[in-house]
Amino acid sequence: MAIGREPILKANRQQPPYASILALSASGFSIEKSVQFADGQKLALILDGELVSNDVEISRIIAQSTSSADRLLGSSIADSAIIDNAINFVADAVTKKDYSALHSPEFSIKTSENSVNAADFAVFSVAHDNAELKAKFSDVIDRVIKDPVLAPAHNFVGLYKVAGAPSLKTVAMTKEKKIDEGKFVDLPGAEKEKVVVRFPPEASGYLHIGHAKAVLINQYYQQKFEGQLIMRFDDTNPAKENAHFEHVIKEDLLRLGITPDKWTYSSDYFEMLRTMCEELLKEGKAYVDNTKTETMRKEREERQDSRNRSNTPDENLQLWEEMKNGTEQGLKCCVRIKIDMKSNNGAMRDPTIYRCKPEEHVRTGLKYKVYPTYDFACPIVDSVEGVTHALRTTEYHDRDNQYFFICDALGIRKPYIWEYSRLNMTNTVMSKRKLTWFVDEGHVEGWDDPRLPTVRGVMRRGMTVEGLKQFIFAQGGSRSVVMMDWDKIWAFNKKAIDPIAPRLTALDTTSPLVSIELTDSINDNVSTVSLHPKNAEVGTKVIHKGKHLLLEQVDAAALKEGETVTFVNWGNIKIGNIKKNGALITKITASLQLDNTDYKKTKKVAWLGDVKEEAGKSIPIVTAEYGHIISKAIIGKDEDWKQFINFDSVHYKKMIGESAIKTLKKGDIIQIQRKGFYIVDQPYCLKSELSSVQTPLLLIAIPDGHTGKDNEKVQKNTTSTVTAASPTDNEGMEVYQKIEKQGILVRDLKAKNAKSQATKDAINAMLELKRSYKEVTGQDYKPGKPPAESAANTILQDTNITKQIEFQGNVVRNLKAKDPKSQETKDAIAKLLDFKKKFKEATGSDYKPVAAPAPPVQTPASVQDSASVDETAFLRVIEDQGALVRDAKSKDPKSQKSADAINKLLSLKVDFKKVFGKDVPAPAND
């Protein structure tokens, strides 16, 4: 939910909505115009027919509706999660009129940014007149009062008189750019050179990026405090241990740049662990239980004591001997520690600490028949190895008390447990069991398949260690459980590879290439050019030129006779005669215009020289583009994940590339101009004298965080791909919105003092925005005339998808505040991600919570004449939605999916009538 116009709040002067007023001030809205006081008036904001009456919720809506959204709601993933969670806490407290939750350790407003944000506004609104909360959040109170940008808000309310605020331009200029790094909290009790952390993987599979997050966070604190990092293999389960996986994990850690101070194994302490178990049995703190597994599970659920809980120490030790010898009787037993069978926490209901497994261990062989559980070994080995801080994901939270209980029962030192959120990714599986199934069933090429979330898989697909680190560090140490989209991680990776990836040329041979013949008298020749336009250190390459050139069909189709075109890395060439055979272009004649160095308004094309010299011959290339291995973003707890396997998740394409490509080695990352980034999976190999087989270069496409590909744009007949890179519709609209808001600010300042410095600064900022608008859109700014949108964007705005995203976002926030791990929350998140995916598919850019200004009212006739709306395209959208309705109804006509599809179809038909002034025509065969 967001607003693109001046919001109107109705409120009681005796109870001013402080959070909302602060948000108005920070967002550049006029407080005087937005807030209407009346005696006895209950707080109300009417937005799209909905009543919002919670001050904190209104402040969030205002913050979402401004170009300052990143500053107020968090510019990094970690900060956004912290701020959003804090707002949910306070909003809920306001609704319940119970502020005890704000004293909870779970409530935090600490972010990596120093500037005030929407969470500060929320806390200030409830704490400034509450003595207890004011003392607790004194730093927030002080920060909000002293921030000069918020001076208009304080002066309007009248409780605090503060100095005036600087102009928005001044604020923007003084705001420092920061590394996109999340908040890493200081570890309690941590001291320089005394911190010891550990990473305890089980050698039962390959590391995935969730493990990478764990080890990188441990490394972060090791380096920050100049401490030690222990790499410990948890080999407590002989059935799962595998020497091959151990070797692989060590290699993967080297790939990630991890150098531990010590390598250890849980099995190093088997003798000590067995002795400690015996001590617990002798002291009556543990017992041997031979209850059947199903009965034991039922007793735990019903919180009933086992009949063996009252065994004497001698009886327990006798059964313990049976276990150690691996006898038939011993195989029926396990050792359980006595904690509390009545506990609400299932992990405290006498957990198993030892089991009988007469299997060969990869390190100790057949020496032992009994093995400790991970939950028993972990706290003991942590304590013995000197671990000061055990970093674990929040999924282990329920076991924390169990961890400490075991330490207390044995009288050993308790390390500090610090929690962070587990890494959850959409459209994939992270469990080793499921990943193993994919490999064993042959659905993937192996553990390093680019579709898998394994470290080897993502690195084979082009993920760099630097990109992975930036992604992990952007999340920081947040405990908020979030589902991350793959676009996020690949966007970080692009930032890492873009400055260093060599630029090379290759042409898609899916359609016949077009031959260009120069009319000039020219021989085959070579020239040396830079491999990167902005980084000379990347090196140079030799390009081969001549009388005959090659061009892709899609580029040739956009050329016109007589126009001048820039051939990248050569110069301007004038197009002469264009010959066609049906729809295909077969040949083009052209002439050099190298003296013309005006490249600003020319089309840019990638080309190859069709030369005779062997050194300049193009080489064959095969590219592989991998998709998601799971078709659904988030799979519900009760859903069968195998029903969502994407069996069509890799596609191959043939190209030819310039001769410089033949020197590439396996693992090299390049950018093929105007196509994207690729990593070499298999180098090019010349024909062998023995086999006469030529091996083409195999490239794997590296995602860059954007869904719009050049070939997709061609297939959809959108703007020609040969034009110089142009901004998206959204970029022009964003600048337009900033100008509109800046105009309001200028008018307000002029009304107060037309000659003040603040007014001059605001006018200068306005002029700068108008210059930016012209650069982005190629046209002058005109009030009330936003930049023309594509048909897809117009239809998208005419439908309710933006409102659906905003509404669903509020649903998700409310559910996460109640129970972030519930199935209802996961389903709501999946629905939100689906809406955003549709938005991105339609617009080519990510959804941003900024509403567009209301379009001018048009009559149906004038709309039909507008190039911005295409009736045929709109009808195709309605037709597609009709197909979705029929499909959903055929499966379950009473399902929520069917109802949602029908509602959307009806909404589209209503919008069609509003735009075109007529009903949707019936199908011809009706």
Automatic annotation (TrEMBL):
Region feature Disordered, mapped onto this chain: 292-316
Enzyme class: ligase
Basic and acidic residues biased stretches: 292-308
Keywords assigned: Aminoacyl-tRNA synthetase, ATP-binding, Cytoplasm, Ligase, Nucleotide-binding, Protein biosynthesis
Signal peptide bounds: none
Localization per record: Cytoplasm
Limits of the WHEP-TRS domain: 731-787, 797-853, 870-926
Keyword Transport annotated: no
Catalytic activity: tRNA(Glu) + L-glutamate + ATP = L-glutamyl-tRNA(Glu) + AMP + diphosphate
Listed EC numbers: 6.1.1.17
Database matches in InterPro entries: aa-tRNA-synth_I_CS (IPR001412), Gln/Glu-tRNA_Ligase (IPR050132), Glu-tRNA-synth_arc/euk (IPR004526), Glu/Gln-tRNA-synth (IPR000924), Glu/Gln-tRNA-synth_Ib_cat-dom (IPR020058), Glu/Gln-tRNA-synth_Ib_codon-bd (IPR020059), Rbsml_bL25/Gln-tRNA_synth_N (IPR020056), Ribosomal_bL25/Gln-tRNA_synth (IPR011035)
SMART domains: WHEP-TRS (SM00991)
GO biological process terms held by the UniProt record: glutamyl-tRNA aminoacylation
GO molecular function, one term: glutamate-tRNA ligase activity
CC per GO annotation: aminoacyl-tRNA synthetase multienzyme complex; cytosol; methionyl glutamyl tRNA synthetase complex
Family: Belongs to the class-I aminoacyl-tRNA synthetase family. Glutamate--tRNA ligase type 2 subfamily.
Name the UniProt record assigns to this protein: glutamate--tRNA ligase
